[in-house]
Amino acid sequence: MTIDTKDMLNSILASISRIDYIKPEEIPGIDLYMDQVTTFMESQLAASKRHTDDKILTKTMINNYAKNDLLPPPVKKKYTKEHLLMLTFIYYFKNILSISDIQVLLGPLTEKYFNHNGEMSLTDIYEEIMHLELKQIDPLTKDIVRKYKMACDSYENAEEENQDFLKKFAFICMLSFDVYLKKQVIEKLIDDMAEPKK
After folding, report:
1. N or C: the chain end with fewer CB closer than 10 Å?
2. pTM, whole model, 2 decimals?
3. What DSSP line would sit under 164-184, residue for residue?
4. Range list of H helices, the chain
5. Mean confidence (pLDDT) of the chain
């Protein structure tokens, strides 16, 4: 692939290395109104936007999440730290899962850990998930580089003016296949969770 593509890969890898998450201690210690929630989430997750004018969350989205039982309703129009943690999960899941799948996944989390004073809090669960995910950055980065090298070695016999496109296409297809397979696994796990226990 061309130098531009190598620059693109380096840019992707650099952005992966900067992946961060909303740390629970960064969430305000007071309950927030809707405008404050959208402003906070926008500032915290801005780096994950594809385009600068994309919206992280809107009032309509948040209201729809509450209507669809993805998010417990606010208390006196205010959202707690736990609401913000749930919104963070929803934000990431909505890119790959249907609303009904997210309901199945988050329903037990809400029932057992939202506003409960058990031995494990929603914050504990969130922190453990983020810890596990951050540990995946290095292996995922290595896998992306491996796929990139495989794509660079493909289509050597194609006409020279078509090679760059075909190599990029191969790279995108390999990354997409990986996402497709993982999505299949996720959906199977969610289907198993949704089935009534016998």
Report:
1. C
2. 0.86
3. HHHHHHHHHHHHHHHHHHHHH
4. 3-17, 34-45, 59-67, 81-93, 99-113, 122-134, 137-152, 160-194
5. 89
